[in-house]
Amino acid sequence: MTVYAAGAVCWRLHGDKVRVLVIHRAFRNDVSLPKGKVDPGETLPETAVREVMEETGLPVELGVPLGVTSYTMPNNRDKVVYYWAAEVTPEAYASSSFEPNEEVAGFEWLSLRRAKKVLTYERDVEVLERFQLLVDQGVSRTFAVIALRHAKTIPGGDFDGPDAQRPLTHRGRTEANVIVPTLRAFGPEVVIASTARRCVETVTPFSEATEIRVRTTDLISQDAFEDGTSDVRHVVAKRVRKSKSAILCAHGPVLPEIVREVGLAAGGSRQASLARAGDLPVGGFSVLHLSLEQPGSGIIAIETHLPQLA
Questions:
Q1: Which domain holds residue 226?
Q2: Is residue 283 classed as helix, strand or coil in its secondary structure?
């Protein structure tokens, strides 16, 4: 059986120089990137954030995905590891509570060149090289627009009332709760929802967990979209202009337009990947990573996540 794991290239600016974190594992006598196995019920982004905290004491939020490594372990089981970039803010750096332990003897911050020389495994070097491409292009600092489809809702034929008042089903409420940790891994600071009850109920668990207020708008509602009074461009343009990670919770027919407008606001992007990112099942969301310092450089990366129910 394949073992899945996740980790991050933790980085920070020291003056104007990029420094990345490597860990020293005494029990393996190696130097590597922080990572660890997925716990039961976890998603990969959850695992990456948790493992960085456990191994380094650093609270991080995930940026651009850096791909996957795979290898066979000594016990002949295959292991697949997913990585993200994760900028360590000055506040997080100052708050690190790391103490040497049985697993991690210590860590250090190195230049990219030095880190690639000291890492024990070539697969970790390859992950760093992917990160270096972002640094060389000036797009390592990012924020995210998260396009979220509302969770499972009572069918229209089973509900005696206006479509906008249809509530979530029991399964939908479960989905809304299950996705909270994965959403949190990307550090959203703003939550925008369609005024429809099903959208508000979908983001309410995240709002309660983070104490981030839900802002509602008819401009991305399904009713407005169908009668021609929506204004997705205005909502998206404001979020891109603010350059803060945000959730936009809307409806199946509206999400492709949201994603398309993010691509346009960011300077254009590949239409095929955008179409896939907007085609989401209930409770699913796409994370569109945009550059903080080069806002016209297009969408840097796209990843999609689905609710994982037991």
A1: 142-305
A2: coil
